[in-house]
Each structure stands twice: as C-alpha cells, then as structure tokens.
Amino acid sequence: MKQRIISACVGLCVLVLVLAYFNTWVLNLAISVISVIAVWEVLDIAQRHRNRVLTVAALVFSVLLPFFRVGSVVRLLPIICFLFILTLLGVLLTKHEEMHVEQVAFMSFISLLVPFALTTVLFIRDSLGALLGFYYTVFALAAAWSADTGAYFAGLRFGKHKLSPKISPNKTVEGAIGGGIAALVCSLLLSYLFMVVATQLYGQAVTVNFWLVALASPVLTLLSIMGDLTASVIKRQYEVKDFGQIMPGHGGIMDRFDSVMLVMPAVYLLSLYCPLAVI
C-alpha cells in the first residue's frame, strides 16, 4: 500500500505539471509519450513486437497522432488510417507463413484504440478552448480515477459479491457501487469548484448543468469499469498480472489509463452534444 501511495503521489505531481502547460505543446508531448508506452506495453505482453515493421508502424502512429490538430486530423484521418492499415496488410501478405491474421488484427485494434482514446484530450482542448477544455479533461480523469479508487477501497471494506470472477476475481459489486458513489461526489464537487474558480479568478461566467453531471457520472463509471475489465481480459489471456512496472504498486501506464480509454471519448461526445458546462 505504501508503494502504491508513493507512486500515486509522484504520478499526480507529474499530472499537475503537465496540466500547468495545458494549452501548450507540452500536453501533446505528454499524450504522445503515454500513448507510445501504453501501446508498447500491450504489444509486449502479447509478443506482437517481434515483427519490426509492424512494431515501428504502430509506435510511429502512436507518437505522431497527438501532434495533429483537430482540423488536420479530420482532413487527414482517412489517409493516415489507410496508410497504417495498408502497412499492416502488406506485412501480413509478405509474412503470411509466420504471421496469423489475428495477430495483425490485434495490433491494429490496440494501435488505433489507445492513441485515439488518449488524443481525445487534445480534441477537447482544441475544440472548446483552454478553460472549458481544462474542465472537461480534469472531469474525465477524475471520473475514471475516483471510480477506480472508490471501488478499490469499498471493495476492501465491503466486498462480498464478485462482479466478474472469471475476468477479475478481486472486483466486487459493492466495490463498483462504492466507485460510482465516489465518482458522483467527485464530479459534482469538481464541477462546483470549476464554476466558482472560473467566475472569481478568470471573470468567466460559467454555467454548470449539475443534473446532467449527476446523470452522466454513473454512465462514466460503467465505462471506466468496462475499460478496466477489458484490460483485465487481455492480461488474463496472456497470463500476466500487470502491463508493466513503470509505476510500482500500480503496474504499467496501461494499467493506470485503462479506465480512461472509454471515459475520455465519452466526455468528448458529451462536450459536443450534451454540454456539462458552458461559458
């Protein structure tokens, strides 16, 4: 537990530092680094990094995507994805005797899911501006991680009924409920603080739809659990406990961001179609 807390504190310090430069290229660089490490971790446990061409294509794609602005991504996305998939299929055709199609499919799935999910942060910032973008980004991270933390401690204290014993034996229904409550409280508190700070310090009259925040919170909790369980399925099928050891007590980068993978895109969609906060 001590090691877990220390790693969490170090991680939060790094997060605060990155968020301090939210509206600069520092955020792009941070997302790029996180993406490439997460993709490598998954490919590594699945032993999908043995083909150098596929590995380089996956990692280069992960590194470069966060540096495209929203408008550029919209225009270039078909070309980017086409070239990436073309590379994967080209390797499959030339290495068909030693490579199975499911290997290529797995690589394409991970290489597209992870960078796009994380790069949603940049879509939010570039679409909404620094102030609202900061709110939605922190809101998404807080929703995912508070649900994760709340579920961990609630499960330790009250856990009796297994949530998904064949996928993740330690997760319980009571833990999931505790995580949902923690996420709800954290989301409402964060939204209130943002509204106050934005108004008093930045002179921006921000309106937060607290009813919508309360309704969205349980959905985001379910998505965080789904992302966590999906990562657990991958680890269980490849018989590993963690994706890596870069964060002692937590595992790898993917272990820390698995619950964010579905929450961040969902928050981006909320910002577009059901805004939680407006100026």
Task: Label this structure with key terms.
two-stranded antiparallel ribbon; 10 helices; single chain; 279 residues; mainly alpha
In short:
With 279 residues, the protein is mostly helical.
Describe the structure.
With 279 residues, this protein is mostly helical. The chain folds into two domains: 24-128, no CATH class; 129-279, no CATH class. It is built from ten helices and four strands; from the N terminus they run ααααααββαβαααβ. It has helices spanning 2-20, 25-45, 52-64, 70-94, 101-128, 130-158, 173-202, 210-237, 253-257, 263-273; strands spanning 162-164, 168-172, 207-208, 277-278. A two-stranded antiparallel sheet has the order 1-2. A two-stranded antiparallel ribbon has the order 3-4. Helix 6 crosses helix 8. The longest helix has 30 residues, at 173-202. It is globular, with a radius of gyration of 19 Å. The N and C termini lie far apart (41 Å).
Q: What's the SSE blueprint?
A:
Blueprint: H1 2-20, H2 25-45, H3 52-64, H4 70-94, H5 101-128, H6 130-158, E1 162-164, E2 168-172, H7 173-202, E3 207-208, H8 210-237, H9 253-257, H10 263-273, E4 277-278
Antiparallel strand pairs: 1-2, 3-4
